[in-house]
Amino acid sequence: MLLVYILIVAAxxxxxxxxxxxxxxxxxxxxxxxxxxxxxxxxxxxxxxxxAVVELSVGAGLVTVLFVFAINIAGEETxxxxxxxxxxxxxxxxxxxxxxxxxxxxxxxxxxxxxAAPNLSLYEAIWQQRNxxxxxxxxxxxxxxxxxxxxxxxxKPIEEHPAEVKS
Amino acid sequence: MTLELWNVGLVTILxxxxxxxYGLLISRNLIKMVVALQILAKGAILAMVLAAKLQGWTVIxxxxxxxxxxxxxxxxxxxxAMAVQIRRHCGTLDVQSLSNLRR
Amino acid sequence: MSTALLLVLLxxxxxxxxxxxxxxxxxxxxxxxxxxAVAFSAAAGVAAVFLLTQTSPDVVGYKELPIWGRAxxxxxxxxxGLGVFLxxxxxxxxxxxxxxxxxxxxxxxxxxxYYAFVLFFIGAMVGLVLTNNxxxxxxxxxxxxxxxxxLISFHNDDPKAVAGGIKALIITQVGGVGLLVGALVSANVFxxxxxxxxxxxxxxxVNPVPLTWMAFGCLAAAAAKSAQFPFQTWLPDAMEAPTxxxxxxxAATMVNAGVYLLARFYxxxxxxxxxxxxxxxxxxxxxxxxxxxxxxxxxxxxVLAYSTVxxxxxxxxxxxxxxxxxxQFHLFSHSVFKALLFLGAGAVIHAAGTRDMRQMGGISKQMxxxxxxxxxxxxxxxxxxxxxxxxxxxxxxxxxxxHGPIWAYVIMLIGAGLTALYTFRCVTxxxxxxxxxxxxxxxxxxxxxxxxxxLALGSLVTWLAFGPFSEMMKNTxxxxxxxxxxxxxxxxxxxxDPYTMLTLxxxxxxxxxxCFRSKLGGLASALKFLGDAAQASFGFEWINRGxxxxxxxxxxxxxxxxxxxxxxxxxxxxxxLVIVLAxxxxxx
Lengths: 167, 103, 588
Description:
heterotrimer; A: about 0% strand
């Protein structure tokens, strides 16, 4: 079983890294979909199938479609020079933050006594315990719809001067 | 949950976070930065599910993870919409050229 | 919800709501804007006055708000005498200043911005004095500083106004750090943001070092806010503001916040070694220095600003001497007569079109009402009997003599004489003597009169409220030691006190010095060096200028970190994560 796990981790790492490294945006989006699918698998293995399903359909499905769509509208761009942020600094910060995070997690392996967890089903938890979250999600989805309208809106001719109010 | 799964999950989280940070730090393309942000968020979702499992508050953590997935998707939608509009108005997605627009 | 809580929330919320509505009304409808501003400030005033009937030492508010969390303490207020009477001053004088503005600001552009900030200020000031949470107090404190800045720089095409505003903002903000330190120490050491809990638990035996930090932090904050030594120079520069603002923010309310802070925390800090001496010293030095500066200034509003600084010095001195009641009573009188003086000066400036007193003179016939009310205010400031300034100043001096050091008393006595001297100089230069301007001046408009007359009446009679005032203070401040007295007893005590005669003699001396100034030419030229030094702010300007330029230099330098490059911004975020993790790991 450990071997399978290690394979999943390795595959996730490769997919994620390729998503960052790929020159073409479309390729990048596909690698992202792969990462998402592997994360969904991991979540399933941990024992949260509902979350895994949502992650797979939304993360790997919807978001990928969205990316492909947006890249088609916006077009590909490739750059010859790297970012102006010094590469060693970027590596250093990443390594430092990951090491510290890992250390932080491991230093907390002795988990506090599990507080008596309410015995709820996921359904009850979502609809009864976390109804503020639901409210928030509705608001977010509304924002998302507005965003999608923005994404789809055809470009108007750009006005050279902002409209002036004639008094 | 086995100890192996806990360790493996931890490594996955760290890898995802690390790659996400790296992508945010070195990408020049706005859409690429959103991809990096997505990878970061996946690490966060995984961490939430794992921690919930470990603590025993499984369902609460999972429902929160669902909220994060929704929020993250919306972030992607809006970021994409902004990227498309920026491309239309400024003709580029390069954050370096865009930073030259500042006054 | 208790009545007290409802009234507190109304007194804070109504002006803020009004600020939004005035803003949304738009500058195309100035009449509507005037009406809305007056309506909301008056409504807040009514709420605050009703709050007078609800004073009690009880803490009201929301202890357990689920979405608020514990990080910022509880949203609690305490409607005790100290807070409520300051809230009444803020809202009532606030509404009078707004009413005055109807005439004063007529025809100005961007009235929405003006009224929105005034109303925002009134609400924040009420919150500042009523809240029981020291962190919320800090927030309200900073909001008042922000509004003060925005209103000083209201004419933002005038470089002097902008510079004055920035200076006021930076100086009060730097002082505000002291209050923030106090809040954090309170949370860390005493485990609470609640002022009432802190006052109950703080003791010099248990936590001497943190208490000392808090005490001197609050003193710095108070000195910066109330324009005390060595931060006294921002207030005169703040006189670029429209005059109703000077009356409201820079005479009657915001500058009192420092005095309020010291009074509020006095029971906790009085045991801190050297603290009371430091407070007395700050008050005495400021009172004397500002009085000398007022004597040589030629700008009418600057004279009034220096006199405000000087009178605030009296209040700070009274607190240092243990007279919380005396300081608050003087604050009460001062708010009324100084708002009157400023608004009167505003009417004169509005008519004359200049602030230079040398250009004025001989206008007493043209503006009889303004002259009369201005003289009432001036006599109260000078400490002439029967007016409210006399009684409160006597109380301050008496407390200082009984409990404070004798050198400070002597300084304050000299200050009283100087106060009389510069007040008479100011009145004569503005209203009497030869006219320097040809054109005829118009008397104050109806709205101006509506604001001036109540204040003039107040200057005549507010001292009669001493009995109920002290009663209210005593009954609602459990941590302060306050001796209550009936008005009659108080009056008898002051009148029969031999030292009252001494003060009156000094005041008369000041008056005489002005009347016989031509005979004292030799003395005047001998003291010329003092006048020159005073005009140069005794050299303390450089401290303030230094603070301002250091702050601005830091801003300019830090601007380099804002590359506008998204990658760098994320780098800062990751860097912050690293730092937070490192702190957590070190703490673990």
